[in-house]
Design a protein that fits this description.
- An 8-stranded mixed beta sheet has the order 1-2-4-3-5-6-10-11, sandwiched between helices. The chain has a 3-stranded antiparallel beta sheet with strand order 7-9-8.
- It has helices at about 5, 55, 90-100, 115-125, 145-150, 150-155, 160-170, 175-185, 195-205, 220-225, 235-240, 280, 285-295, and strands at about 10-15, 25-30, 40, 65-70, 105-110, 130-135, 175, 205-210, 210-215, 245-250, 265-270.
- It has about 300 residues and is α/β, with parallel strands linked by helices.
- It has a single domain, classed as 3-Layer(aba) Sandwich (Rossmann fold).
Length: about 300
């Protein structure tokens, strides 16, 4: 078996200094470091890059992949400032900074949920750096809802989303990683996850503090990501001039883009049978195939 597949990803850091606050973005680097980057994969809200290791590692024998920890997640140190926040422009700008470090050919931008949407937003700002986008369950509301979220009174209603309330109630501290594994296994959003993926998530999802472990993605920050929806992925898909392939779950999808969306000839939408918003965890084979097809 190829050594690239067997060896663990390298962890690198990228300095980030923008209007949202300076720090270091932690990035997992899969594959041959001598080749240009082929693909950037961005995680969902509340997760981290390591969560997708078992999906991405088998591709490392053919591709070089960067998987960043987004602001407020994993091992990245950029400040997660909630006050005055309206959307995911901070995640967009952090990904722009990552793209600007690359000097090779255009890369594939990809991701899950918030990471998928943020990839679409970043691509619109740096289209020359990106060949196409592969988005798994991107969070995209109806066009009129996106407009409404930018209105002061309507935008404020997002704090009442069930996901926001659930995030704020999330347990943030555990006595051990084993206790967290037991608490998550087969429950809630983690239903259907393999133990390997769950252990990978906890490897960067928990950090030792005092006599226990705390979540690296604080519940208040996770809730903020759910409630701040003032960004516009519809505009981003229109102006980027890059193909966007969307794969969405059959039930409980957060992507309200329909097949052949009006005015977006470069956007394709596929529904994956027997999946939910956790499509990558339930069908990693389909995710790997889509990423490989886009990058080769």
């Amino acid at each position: 078996m190829d050594a690239a597949r067997l060896s663990p990803p390298r962890r690198m850091t990228v300095p980030i200094d923008n209007r949202w606050g300076a720090g270091e973005m932690s990035v997992l680097d899969f594959g041959d470091p001598k080749r240009p980057v082929d693909l950037i994969f961005c995680h969902a809200n509340g997760f981290n890059a390591a969560t997708y290791r078992s999906i991405l590692a088998p591709l490392a024998s053919s591709l070089r992949i960067l998987a960043p920890d987004l602001r407020g997640h994993g091992n990245s140190t950029m400040p997660a400032r909630i006050e005055g926040r309206r959307g995911w422009q901070d995640h967009r700008d952090d990904l722009i900074a990552l793209l600007d470090t690359l000097d090779g050919p255009p890369v594939v931008m990809a991701g899950h949920s918030m990471g998928a949407t943020s990839s679409i937003l970043a691509t619109a700002e740096r289209p020359a750096k990106v060949s196409q986008v592969v988005a798994f369950e991107p969070v995209i509301w109806k066009r009129w809802m996106t407009t409404a979220f930018n209105l002061p009174l309507v935008g404020g209603l997002a704090v009442h989303f069930p996901l926001v309330k659930t995030a704020l109630r999330r347990r943030a501290r555990f006595d051990s990683r084993e206790q967290a594994l037991k608490a998550y296994r087969g429950r809630g959003a983690f239903k259907g996850w393999s133990d390997i993926m769950l252990v990978d998530y906890l490897s960067s999802g928990l950090v030792e503090e005092g006599d226990g472990f705390v979540l690296t993605a604080a519940p208040a920050w996770e809730a903020s990501n759910y409630s701040t929806q003032g960004h516009d992925p519809w505009r981003a898909m229109k102006v980027s001039g890059r193909p966007v392939r969307i794969l969405k779950g059959e039930t409980g999808s957060t992507c309200l883009v329909q097949p052949a969306p009006r005015g977006l000839p470069l956007v394709s939408v596929e529904v994956v049978a027997n999946t939910t918003h956790m499509l990558p965890m339930l069908r990693p084979d389909i995710v790997r195939d889509a990423l490989f097809d886009a990058a080769v």
